Amino acid sequence: MRRGAAAKGFYFCYYAAMAALLPSLVLLYGELGFSGERIGTLTALLPLMLMTGTFGMGVLADLVGRRRALLVGLHLGATLGVLGLTQSAAYGPLALFVALFALCFGPLAPLVDSTVLAALGEHKERYGRYRVWGVVGWGLAAPSVGALTERYGLPVAFWVTAGLLLACLVMGALLPLERSEGGLRRALAARELLSARWGVFLALVFAGGLALAVCSNYVYLYLAALGASRTVVGLSLSVATLSELPFTLLGGLLLRRSAAPALLVGALALLGVRLLLYPVGGAVPWVLTVQLLHGATFSVIWIAGVAYADALAPPRLKVTAQGLFSAVMMGLGGAAGGLVGGVLYGSVGPAATFTLVGAGALALSGVLFWVVQRQGVASGTVPRERERRQGEPAEQDERP
Q1: Is residue 162 domain-shared with residue 199, that is, in the same domain?
Q2: Where are the residues of the annotated region Disordered (predicted)?
């Protein structure tokens, strides 16, 4: 019971810390007067370092096996990075502390995820009962921290984040952290995942990650430019987060009715529409309304991506396949979206940025739809993938 509460508390504080920090980072860059190019570089640095830290620290955890000591060190490093941001106004030191935070923060959730899944044993389908507390933490923290920064200034967001990270440390220390087996062998065998179907799949999730990064990062600057308060900026994040709930709950139904590649293409097309809609209204209420499309885009891409990665992966590479999917979408795609968005935002402004990226996402979804159809008709990939998913319910239960 105590360990279950600790896991729920960890997810709540971890995702609340993300909700407190992410909008504040972009606003901090704007307040310091950085150019669009520098904002784009800093925005791209975060997912790249998150990806590097997740893979690097995962290998280290498998090598040394001292997961509890690693968890403590990562928490302290992430907290130091956040506190350093409150003392930095120059570009160089700020980039250094962003990198330190991301390198240490990224591996925390995978370490706890593996512990929770191992503790659940044959009941891995109950994982969502713990992870849902992350959605609750995110949804509550975003408007709360926004209101605090509105009253006390932007630095309070970083102090709140540091406090939440220390709370994460306490919760994580109560979990039965154990050494995993075979992680290095699976990572070294990742080259077996290279195939034409994997190429199309990764192209889809990379494009989705890029477009989502433009939505997630630059909508806050756009809202600020429209005159939104910091409380409203935090509210926009809560609206997006809460919109995930119905699609997360209905994920199994969506996968039973449609093949995962079709869902990915459809979500990418809807992402394009979402981006095109942002500048249409030119007002804060309109942008908040468009944020409701987040669940139909991000959640569907994530659910379909997890399912399709599992279906395509060889039996001994299931975990590696999930890591590759996450790295390409959140790491490479997120970094590319931050960089491209920053360059466009600084040169052509927010409306043109959303329009250009949205049009590109729509066009690419059309091309990838044609490719997916060719693959499905020529090789039977899509029908076989659906049959395989229906025939392996036990493996599907193991996915978060």
Answers
A1: no
A2: 381-400
Q: Are residues 190 and 153 in the same domain?
A: no
Separation of alpha carbons 336 and 279, rounded Å:
22
The answer on 158 and 32 residing in a single domain is yes
pLDDT score, position 184: 47
**What angle do the packed helices 196-225 and 318-326 form, to 10 degrees?**
40
189 and 102 in one domain? no
Both 303 and 367 in a single domain? yes
CA-to-CA separations, 279 to 53, 65, 259, in angstroms, rounded: 35, 50, 32
pLDDT one-digit tens code per residue, 77-112: 999 999 998 888 888 889 999 999 988 998 787 777
CA-to-CA distance for 398 and 400, rounded, in angstroms? 6
151 and 252 share one domain: no
Nearest of 204, 233, 207 to residue 220 by alpha carbon: 233
DSSP class per residue in 179-218:
--SSHHHHHHTGGGG-SHHHHHHHHHHHHHHHHHHHHHHH
CB within 8 A of 276, min separation 6: which ones?
Answer: 354, 355, 358, 359, 362
Average pLDDT over every residue of 366-389: 59
Residue 340 sits in a domain of what CATH number?
A: 1.20.1250.20
Q: Choose the most confident range, by mean pLDDT, from 55-64, 99-108, 237-246.
A: 99-108
Same domain, 272 and 343: yes
**Smallest Cα–Cα separation from 343: which of 40, 29, 28, 6?**
40
Domain finish residue from 149, 181, 213: 181
For 359, the enclosing helix (H) or strand (E) is helix 350-379
Domain of 352 in residue numbering reads as: 185-400
Report residue 118's pLDDT band, with 50, 70 and 90 as the boundaries.
low
**How many CA atoms are closer than 13 Å to the CA of 154, on its beta-carbon side?**
19
| Same domain, yes or no: 212 and 162 | no
List pLDDT tens digits, range 178-206.
554 544 454 454 455 566 788 888 899 99
| Tally of structural domains, the chain | 2
The two structure tokens encoding residue 357? 């990226």
At residue 222, φ and ψ (nearest 5 deg) are -65, -45
Give the end of a domain, one of 181, 203, 223.
181
The token duo for 129 is 């009962």
Q: Give yes or no for residue 387 having a pLDDT over 60.
A: no
Q: Classify 282 as helix, strand or coil.
A: coil
